[in-house]
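Supplementary Methods S3. Complex input for the nicotinamide-adenine-dinucleotide-bound model.
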Amino acid sequence: MTDPTRLLIHGATGRMGQALLRLAAERDDLRVVAAASRREPEALPAGVQWLPASDLDRAPAFDVAIDFSLPEAFDGVLALCAARGAALVSGTTGLDEAQRAALDATAGHVPVVWAANFSLGVAVLADLVERAARALRDWDCDIVESHHVHKKDAPSGTALALGARAEAGGASPRFASLRAGDIVGEHLVQFATAGERIELVHRATSRDIFARGALHVARRLHGRAPGAYRVADLLD
Ligand code: NAD
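Predicted complex, serialized as structure tokens:
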């Protein structure tokens, strides 16, 4: 077996960060070396060093950073990966245009993956949405996303990504967002015309699906040439 991929988890105290730490510990091919967050986590798996988010320069050597944090924290982990020549897997949503441009520029030097959604089911949903949009040219297209009350950005990054695929198929999607209870994530894409309606829905019931996807992608990204990769490039 080749050496385990050394991971830095950025946003370690968050809901996703906690899932990443728990699921990474189950894999022999991954080793978390550092967990970065604003406040110190109550507990960390053995061998994992805590790194204050304000002091990322002190990170130990790592191969891939996995970032599920907030837009205001993103620039720091991007700069760290560029400085260390390390790969970046990010699922942080709500990035602005300047941050997207900085991510593209950094992909000239290190391998990066940014995805609004790391679930396989949503990748398939996106394909179905584009296909439906192509076939249903004059139908109304609406995307309704529901998430837990703590989610800050709206529409969700996944809703925007699905909207881009609908547009690629020729539709003009509208968006609606609901924030309620502890909903992990639901996306409904509806195509409607006089007398009939199609609803395509994805429901995530556990955020483990996103964490598993990000860990899988991190392992596959390790050792690749610099560039911006998609989740679909790294599934095998
Ligand atoms: P959360 O609020 O539970 O956690 C946010 C984390 O960011 C915390 O660990 C916090 O310490 C850290 N953080 C906040 N400000 C910081 C700063 N200035 N410097 C460093 N760290 C900082 O959020 P969550 O539910 O874990 O989601 C995190 C992100 O991941 C969000 O953008 C969410 O939309 C996104 N998300 C993406 C996917 C996907 O598949 N792409 C899935 C779920 C969530």
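The chain is about 30% helix and 30% strand. Residues 11-17, 37-38, 53, 68-70, 72-73, 91-94, 115-118, 150, 207, 210 surround nicotinamide-adenine-dinucleotide (CB under 6 Å).
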